[in-house]
Amino acid sequence: MPENADIQSVLDRAAAGGRITPEEALVLYRDAPLHALGQAADAVRRRRYAGTEHLATYIIERNINYTNSCVTACKFCAFYAPPKSEKVWTRDLDDILRRCAETVELGGTQIMFQGGHHPDYGVEYYEKHFAAIKEAFPQLVIHSLGASEVDHMARISGVSAEEAIRRIHAAGLDSFAGAGAELLPERARTAIAPLKESGERWLEVMEIAHNLGVESTSTMLMGTGETNAERIEHLRMIREVQDRTGGFRAFIPYTYQPENNKLRGQTQATLFEYLRMIAIARIFLDNVAHIQGSWLTTGKDVGQLSLHYGADDLGSVMLEENVVSSAGARHRSNRMELIRLIRAAGRVPAQRATTYEHLVVHDDPENDPVDDRAVSHISSTAIEGGTAHPGLKLVDAN
Ligand code: SF4
């Protein structure tokens, strides 16, 4: 057990802008007093955003799930169905375009195209869909997919990852969402996603994308039995690539949800572990601009707290979500509530673009939006009998 004085001196160095080692990060993550860790992380955030440190951002977006058919069978996933299962569904292009239209109608600026590793969907499928979306809705940013999907579609089409990225980028993909990172260290990853590409490969594909000018976010799935050392190793692997490319715009940890999957909730991250991860990510990832609090998996109160532990962004009003909600995430919100939550946490809310520019700064409550239709929807298509949340009401796209 390190001395408190040692811990404080590392926290002071980090708060003053110094880089810390993975070994120091592990000590802080495990042993630093929670509030001291949060204070140091908040100091790092304030310095990085000096002048706009009073703001916290959110985005309006929609996840569009095009199929649940997946050959990869991750043990934590409640969304997928094996390709020959009668539970497989796919969405046709008209359906996808209708969902895009609703996103625009509700003030959304981004879509996240997200699905399983369909055995037949190669690069051509994504080219066709991204081109159609961009043609119909050039104002929508396609922030979608990740290294896993790229690796899979490249294999189906018999091309390199580099060619796959060039082609889907040319067709309309703006940036990668960075899902599929799960846990990057080998033991922890193999334990929960044995058929997925390795963590090294996930990073390699992201690095190829960054070098082609396609930026991304990065994620971490917490709570599937990984060790503290593996969590820090995950951060180290991301920081090392980021030192070379600078292409990760944000880091977004979220927690494993325990329902309807093979892991059966036998392990879960606590909310304190989650807050500690937000804080240590802000301190350790000194080369990643944005740290996002995930209220969707941890709850709105923890989301608010994350803003005091180094997060500068509270994620999105997700107009549709099927993946983590299938595994038990039940938190919902709407645009007006997210604005109130951010303000109640002592910050000024700002709606952002995918690239984090501020679109609207809500600095006067008198001018807050009053349109309450921008609501997060839980539409659990993967749960038997569940096709949509009873409160799901989408506008008529026509
Ligand atoms: S997490 Fe993605 S790749 Fe893994 S089983 Fe679910 S849909 Fe398939």
Automatic annotation (TrEMBL):
Cofactor comment text: Binds 1 [4Fe-4S] cluster. The cluster is coordinated with 3 cysteines and an exchangeable S-adenosyl-L-methionine.
Any single biological process term in GO: menaquinone biosynthetic process
Binding sites annotated in the UniProt record for [4Fe-4S] cluster: C70, C74, C77
GO molecular function, one term: oxidoreductase activity, acting on X-H and Y-H to form an X-Y bond
Pathway: Quinol/quinone metabolism; menaquinone biosynthesis
UniProt-listed Enzyme Commission number(s): 1.21.98.1
Top enzyme category: oxidoreductase
Reactions mediated catalytically: dehypoxanthine futalosine + S-adenosyl-L-methionine = cyclic dehypoxanthinylfutalosinate + 5'-deoxyadenosine + L-methionine + H(+)
Keywords: 4Fe-4S, Iron, Iron-sulfur, Menaquinone biosynthesis, Metal-binding, Oxidoreductase, S-adenosyl-L-methionine
PROSITE patterns, per database record: RADICAL_SAM
Cofactor field: [4Fe-4S] cluster
Record family assignment: Belongs to the radical SAM superfamily. MqnC family.
Functional summary from the UniProt entry: Radical SAM enzyme that catalyzes the cyclization of dehypoxanthine futalosine (DHFL) into cyclic dehypoxanthine futalosine (CDHFL), a step in the biosynthesis of menaquinone (MK, vitamin K2).
PANTHER family: FO SYNTHASE (COFH) (PTHR43076), LIPOYL SYNTHASE 2 (PTHR43076:SF1)
Protein name per Swiss-Prot or TrEMBL: Cyclic dehypoxanthine futalosine synthase
Native source organism of the sequence: Streptomyces tardus
